[in-house]
Every structure is written in C-alpha cells, then in structure tokens.
Amino acid sequence: MFDDIDNQIKSAKEILKKKSKDYIQNFNNIKRYIDIEIEEIKRSKDLNQSIIPEINFDSIEGNNEELIKKVKQRGCVIVRNVFNEQVINTLNKKLEEYININDYFTDQKKKSDLDKYFSDLKSGKPQIFGLYWSKTQIEIRHSEQMAKVKKWLNNLWVYENDEYKVFDPNRELSYADRVRRREPGDDTLGLSPHCDAGSVERWTDSSYQKIYKDIFSDNFINYNPFDAKYRDRVIEFESPAVAHVFRTFQGWTALTEQGPNDGTLQLIPIAKGMAYILTRALLDDVSENELCGSKLGKALSVNKEYHELLLKGLVSIPKMRPGDTIWWHPDVVHAVEDKHLGKKYSNVVYVGATPYCKKNLDYTVKQTKKFLEGRSPPDFAPEDYEINYNGRVKLENLSSLAKKQLVLEDSN
Ligand SMILES: [Fe+2]
To answer: Which residue, among 338, 335, 342, 339, has the nearest Cα to 319 in the 3D structure?
Structure first.
C-alpha cells in the first residue's frame, strides 16, 4: 500500500516548494524567529526560571489574558492542583494494587511482543502499562475537574471558521490512554524528541498541507497553530504509533512528585516550532525522497543532524506535585528523559483533550465497544489484559459525566 511513499514525498516536496517565492529564504525567515525563541528559552534556563506557563486550577475561569498569550506562544501549560494531593496519593496506591492483585507482570511477560511501539525496551519490567480501565484512570479521566480544564484548553483554539465548526470546545469525548510508572534508576524508557499526530503525513496529507499553508507560502507571520481548521480532517497512515483522534492538547496528570532528572517530560516550548521542521525538509541538502529522518508509521523525528537549533530549546518540565497536570499542543516537540535518577517512582496517567467532533466521535464509538468488553482501545496493541481483571471499571460503575464522554448517554 505504501510502495509509492517515496514518490508521494517527492511530489509533496515539489508542491510545497512551489508555494513559496523562495523556499530557502522562507526557511531563513522562520529560522530567525526560532533563533529569537531559543535565545529566550536559554535566558530563562540561565536564570533558573521555568519558561512553561503555569496556572492554578482555581484561577482558570478568571481573566488570564497575559497567561493565555504565553500559552499560545509556548504551546504548553501546567495546570496545578487540579486534584487534591491526598486523593491522588490514594489513587496511586489503588493503581499499584490493581497491578499486583491481577498479576500484571506475569501477563505482561507473555504478551510483551505484541506492543510494537515500545518493543525496544530493554528491561523486563515495564514502565508503561497497557491498562486503560482501572478505577484510578477512570476517576481522573472522567472527573469534573478534568472536564473543566479541558474546556478551558479547548477554548484556546479557533474552533469555528467561515466553512464549518471544527469542534465543540465545551463538550468532551474521552481518549483512553495508558499509565506510566517509572521506577527509580530506570534507563529504558527514554524517548528521543518527537511529535505525535503524524510524521510523513505532515507534508503529504492534503489537510495538513492546508493547515500549514501559511508556513509554506511565505506567510509564516500569520500562521496560527491554534486554528483548528482541517485538523480534524487529517488522514493518518495506519500504524500502531499514531493516534486516530484530534487532540487539542496531549497531557498527563502526575500521580507522584517528580522533577527534572526524575525521568520526566521534556518539551521544546515553541508553538510554531513545527514551521522550522517542515521547511527544513525542503532544503537542498535533504534528498528528494527524505524528510530529515521522519519515517512512515513512526513518530515525527527531531534530531541533531537537521534540527540542532531547535533542540537547544529542549527543557525538562519543572517539579510536578501529585494532582498537577501538564498539557502540550500536538505540534510541540517532546521527549522523555533517558534516565530516572530520582529515588521514588515517577507515575503519571495520560489524559489528553479530545473535544466533540466527527473524527473523535467515530473513534470514541469504537473505543467504547472495547471498554464494555474490557479490551485495549483501538489505537493500542490488542493486549487486552483487563478482560478478567478484578477492580476493572464496568458500565454500572460509571458516572453520568463518564457515560456522556463515552457516548453511552446523550449529552444534549
Ligand atoms: Fe509522544
């Protein structure tokens, strides 16, 4: 099916180059913007200040104009104290119990070869768990607090345009994802800098070409990464590494305290950083069928060979407390520190924001079927650990909000 991928890349690059009067000069313009951003990030690093905008959960409904401006520039935000710390401590323990009473580790050993995305893990003990329907995850994912945060995040986007309404920012669906429980000393989980939501697609897909039109056609200044138009219409190449939903933000909730060097998340906090990656691939030192290391079916690659400037902006996120959340735009480059040098587990529950739109609805319907059967969601390896697990959340345990977000109950 993808035999012609080389040709697709070649022709996409030709089309994209022609959108500019001078693609080299266009890249240099974008590079100048990135240079300034990198300088700013470096300055804050030198001063030991975090450049990632932060807001307290209690304040998200207030007037936060300055902060919102920062979030739109940086493409990421920390929302602190979304959950009470004691509640999260209990949920963290419950998750551990769920793993132990159901003997996950024995199960996992048998099935580990199924998970292709993390198949190169060296350790026998997993750090990412193929669990989706534990009480801990469901309580966090479908909580009123989470709904409030997501509503706020979704509303940062331009969700309506002259052609159509892309999504309803005030109505959430849910995207079931895994958990990370990273043990002290672990050095198996490091993820090199990348973006999800498509790699090669970002150049070849016709919707992505429209999304990034301003970038390619010498109009970078007017490119708005928070304009959702066509983001719901992107078609991904089939791969276990690609999500089939449109997330306004990816994110996670901290179950334990974790800071820099605890094997935590790193970000390049530049919302428009994708422009650099996209136009870099058009330069003449990249072969006509190559995209600076991005490969079909893999996460979009950001690497030293082509993106050294951008990588200078990679920062570890500051210390997170249990109940704090971090969110990043789907175009924001992120990584996971190679080694966990801390002394305690660094645990998170992944929860992104997936507002109501056709793409997300289509996925949610398929996902809900899996939920009812206790199986792994459609985007993940079909490990199906939880079918017979004690303590798995079932339909009768769900709140009304959870049912709405899983389209098991009408939300109108
Ligand atoms: Fe990722």
So the answer is: 342
Query: Who contacts 102 (Cβ-Cβ below 8 Å, separation ≥6)?
Result: 385, 386, 389, 390, 391
CA dihedral 46, 50, 53, 56 (to 10 degrees): -150
Distance 332 CA to ligand 1 centre (A): 9
Q: Give pLDDT tens digits for 190-220.
A: 889 999 989 999 999 999 999 999 999 999 9
Q: What is each CA distance from 110 to 58, 101, 106, 107, 389, in whole angstroms?
A: 45, 17, 7, 5, 16
CA 291 to chain centre: 21
The answer to whether the CB of 135 falls within 8 A of the CB of 391 is: yes
Q: How many CB atoms lie within 10 A of CB 110?
A: 10
CA of 195 to the centre of ligand 1 (A): 6
Q: Which is nearest to 378 in space by CA: 396, 366, 386?
A: 366
CA of 68 to the centre of ligand 1 (A): 23
CA of 110 to the centre of ligand 1 (A): 26
Distance 19 CA to ligand 1 centre (A): 30
Q: How far is the CA of 299 from the centre of ligand 1 (A)?
A: 7
359 CA to middle of ligand 1, Å? 20
Handedness of CA 137, 50, 247, 340 (dihedral sign): negative
Is the entire prediction scored with pTM above 0.90?
yes
What is the Å distance from ligand 1's center to 400 Cα? 30
Ligand 1 centre to CA of 192 (Å) is: 9
Contact call for residues 321 and 257 (beta carbons, < 8 A): yes
- Residue 68, SS3 per DSSP: helix
**Position 315, amino acid:** V
**What is the residue type of 162?**
D
Q: How far is the CA of 334 from the centre of ligand 1 (A)?
A: 6
pLDDT for 212-251, tens place per residue? 999 999 999 999 999 999 999 999 888 776 789 999 999 9
Give the relative orientation of helices 23-46 and 304-311 as an angle to the nearest 10 degrees: 50
Task: Tell me how far the alpha carbon of residue 193 lies from the centroid of ligand 1, in angstroms.
Answer: 8
Give 277 Cα–ligand 1 centroid separation in angstroms. Answer: 16
Domains of the chain: 5-405 (2.60.120.330)
